[in-house]
Amino acid sequence: MDHHLDLITQRFRGALVGMLASWGATPRDAIELAQDTFAEAYLSRERFRGDWDDISAVGKWLRGIAKNLYLAHLRRWARRAETLEEQDHPATEPVQESEHVIRIRAAMDRLRGPWRCVLQMHYVEGSGLAEIAALLGISERSVEGRLRRARQELERVLKSDPLIRSQSNARMVEEQA
Amino acid sequence: MSDDTIRDAGSDDVDSADLLGRGLAEVMAPYRPDSEDFTAAVERRVKDGPKGPELEQRRLMRFVASAAAVLPPVLLPQVLSKAGVYATGAAATKVGVKFLPGVIAYPAIILVMVFVTCYAVLRPSTRKVRKERSVEEYDQQLQTWWKHNWWVTGAVAGVMVPLAMFAKFEAIVALVLASMIALVLILSRLAKAGFTSRRIVARLCSGLVSGLLQVSVLAVMVVALEDDHSQETPQNLLPAAWLVLMLATILCDRLGREKAKGKPKPKTEKQVKEKAKADRMAVGVVAVFLVVPFTGLFIYWGWFHGSGLEKAIASRAQAASFLASKFDRSDWDDIAGIVRHLRLDPGPDPELGEAKITFAAEFERLDLENGWDPVNQFFVHELESLGFLSPAHYESYLGSGQDLFERTMLERAATKQLVYHHAFGVSVALATKGITDGDARVLADGFVETVLEDPSMLSFDDLEVACVVVDRLGHGEMIERLRSTVHRRLLEFWSGKPGDRHACFVEYVAKLKRIDRDKSLLEELSPISERRATEHAIALMARFGVPEGIDLLALHAFLLEGARYRVSAGASGRHLLYAAARSHLESWPAYEAARTAEEQRLLQIEEEKGLIGRVFEGLSSYSLFLGALLFSLLCIIVTYRAPAEPDPEPDPEA
Question: For every residue of chain A, which 3-state class applies, written as one string?
Fold first, then answer.
């Protein structure tokens, strides 16, 4: 595999999938679209005018490709929705999730879009501030601020929910023991 | 980066934060791809992705989509139009990139659309534009294009017209040429992408080449209509450029009509007739587009501007021989002017034999019994200056009761009211009764003072007559008093500005309306012809010197232009007057000095330009020819390399 492709895949994989997730892609679609994005970036590398070592330029380039692919993906789905019956849609496998995860997800849904976005980008694979900032086209300080406020807000929401709080305390006691 | 780095510093519950982080990671777990699987999937996509020709095709598609978004749909097959509509919607964020080629090519697109419209109007109604498109569809698309683009077309045309009128010739040609090259390159890419055929490319290229031909002809006519050509670079090989464009038009058309690969020859009678009709129509359209501009040019040069191929310049020798030979058309003013300047320059005195005979014949026909007024005293003065009047003529004048001298001249001298026609009274008096020294001084002073009193009422002719009569009265020293006044008047009516290559004197004088014998009123300002004013001004400058500010080289260029005549029509008195005045001007030391200084200046400019500058200037004088050649080659290559049309479906009617 090409050195540059390998490098950007390793660096941006998690953040890019998280970004696609924040746009509303399902896990499977987000991963596939991310794979398409990296492949398209490699195939269209002649059109890239920036420096491959410039992380912000690469992030902007990837974001543009991902956006076009995601819009095309949405158009394809819109056309399919017009022509296919509901029973023709592929069935999604039910995922067993703990109540704790469900409540965090519910709490995430209450966050503002930009805050939720950076959380999702970071927590897919623990991507760094630099990669997230490059993909979003903002500064690392902004990313850091958004993450901090997102976590604060998430904690506040979770603490205001008695069920989540009691569950969290129980877990803490269990772990300390 | 670890989770610690983004942990909320304000939180006092670290374990709670860890728990939240783990929960978030768990929430996003479904999105977490397997690293190796992910890399393998990317590699697989890269491996299966487009490459080689397909990749090239993808690049072309992007370009084609951009071009299709801005080119008029009528020029392209329907599939391309759809691609254009799609591209417009999908890539709205790349407006600049998308519209740039269209903006550059737009003037040429308009030109092409004009041709297409003309062609659509002229073509046989039964002919199909494309196999799969009906005439009605074609017409509808054409109308739709104009409906949506008429205002843009108008705006571009609105910009082009003043440009054509005021911009530099080279700039207009360069703009049109660049625009056309942009369009041809777009067409070339479309042809490579398989969106259009050689036939359509050939049609557009021949239209563009003939369009350039017409634009260049029009530009030449517009430039020729302007008076000041000083800013234009003269174009060499212009007819050769037009010939190249004509040949390229025909060649593109022929290339486009070569039979497509495997295309069967028309077999049925109907097919043969249709083909012959279409061929005749195409030849007719090309002929019209080629004939129209040259007809315009021929009319312009032949009718309005005189034939550029038949011009000659009248000379002093011609002017002199003209006076000695038989003539019947020129007026006496011109004759007098010619003689005046021939006498003023150092050449031999002109022989006036035939002029004198002609005058004698004319004089015989005058009805002198009713006085000299019908003869016109201005006319008489010119005759007198030619020396055509004899004592018998003066006696005749006295006998007709026109004795101006005795009745009024001394009184008018005292009140500074001696004007042009009183000069003839002096001549009559001198030729008949004679004038005393005292009266001569009073009269000479009267003429000079009349000029100084109100020179605005006097023309150059009046000023010159005043000088002549003062001289004749024996007081030439008084004329010097008029020098500054004459110089001021000369500068007042000098038309030249710094940098002008042609300039002359343009004079307006008061036209008086006589109320009674002694009273007149200013009715209006009346222009004197440039020729007359300039000729008298030169005579005045010969007497008083050239005032500072008069460009003798520009004046010489004006006289040179005026002396040009059509060989077929021959030189008239007007042309010969210019020739005589030019010859007179060339004899002046001041003119010689100005010419030498100008030559030095030009030599210095040439030296300052350097070799590169001189080469560039030389090339720019061939710019139209080179541009025509390159554009023609481009069109021919693009047409030749365009793919031939695929085999048509069998005609069900055949």
Answer: CCHHHHHHHHHHHHHHHHHHHHHCCCHHHHHHHHHHHHHHHHHCHHHCCCCCCCHHHHHHHHHHHHHHHHHHHHHHHHHHHHHCCHHHCCCCCCCCCCHHHHHHHHHHHCCCHHHHHHHHHHHHHCCCHHHHHHHHCCCHHHHHHHHHHHHHHHHHHHHHCHHHHHHHHHHHHHHHC
Structure tokens belonging to residue B141: 């698309």
* pLDDT tens per residue across span B171-226: 776 777 777 787 777 777 766 666 666 777 787 788 778 777 877 777 776 666 65
Residue B499, judged by CB atoms within 10 A of its CB (0-12, 13-18, 19+), counts as exposed
| Chain A CB contacts of B14 below 8 Å | none
Q: Which are the contacts of B72, defined by CB distance < 8 A and separation ≥ 6?
A: B109, B113, B145, B149
To 10 degrees, the CA torsion angle through A8, A13, A18, A19?
A: 30
Question: Is A42 within 8 Å of B20 when comparing Cβ atoms?
Answer: no
The answer to whether residues B178 and B171 touch, using CB atoms and an 8 Å cutoff, is no
Q: What is the mean pLDDT of chain B?
A: 71
Q: CB–CB of A155 and B1 under 8 A?
A: no
B5, closest residue in chain A (CA to CA): A144
**CB < 8 Å to A39, chain B:** 42, 45-46, 49
- Rounded to 5 degrees, φ, ψ at B398 are -60, -40
pLDDT tens, B456-504? 777 888 888 888 888 888 888 898 898 999 999 899 889 888 878 888 8
Whether B31 and A100 lie within 8 Å, measured CB to CB? no
User: What span, in angstroms and rounded, lies between the C-alpha atoms of A27 and A20?
Assistant: 9
Give the span between the Cα atoms of B299 and B602, in whole angstroms: 36
**Would you call B164 helix, strand, or coil by DSSP?**
helix
Helix H or strand E segment including B103: helix B95-122
| Mean pLDDT score, B228-248 | 73
Picking from A1, A151, A175, the nearest residue to B39 by CB comes out as A1
ipTM associated with this complex: 0.84
What is the predicted pLDDT for the residue at B2?
Answer: 44
CA distance A57 to A62: 9
Predicted confidence pLDDT, tens digits, chain A (177 residues): 577 788 889 899 999 999 999 988 888 999 999 999 999 888 888 777 777 888 888 898 899 889 888 887 887 777 666 565 444 545 455 556 677 778 888 888 888 888 889 999 998 888 889 999 999 989 899 999 999 999 888 888 887 766 655 555 555 555 555
CB-CB under 8 Å, A129 with B19: no
Which chain A residue's Cα is nearest to B27?
A: A101
Nearest to A42 among B21, B23, B46 (CB): B46
pLDDT of residue B521: 64
* Degrees to nearest 5, angle at CA B353 with B352 and B355: 65
From chain A residues 25-54, the ones with a CB under 8 A of any chain B CB are 27, 30-32, 34-36, 38-40, 42-43
Spatial distance between the Cα atoms of B308 and B310, rounded to a whole number of angstroms:
6
Look at B19 and A168 and tell me if their CB atoms are within 8 Å.
Answer: yes
Q: Does the beta-carbon distance from A39 to B19 stay under 8 Å?
A: no
Whether A125 contacts chain B with CB within 8 A = yes
Q: Which residue of B has its CA nearest to A7?
A: B39
Q: From the CA of B27, how many Å to the nearest CA of chain A?
A: 6
pLDDT digits (tens, 9 = 90+) for A120-170: 999 888 888 999 999 998 989 999 999 999 988 888 888 776 665 555 555
Query: Can you tell me the distance from the alpha carbon of B41 to that of B37, in angstroms, rounded to the nearest whole number?
Result: 6
3-state secondary structure (DSSP) of residue B505: strand
Res. B148: pLDDT tops 80: no
| Chain B touched by A101 (CB under 8 Å) | yes
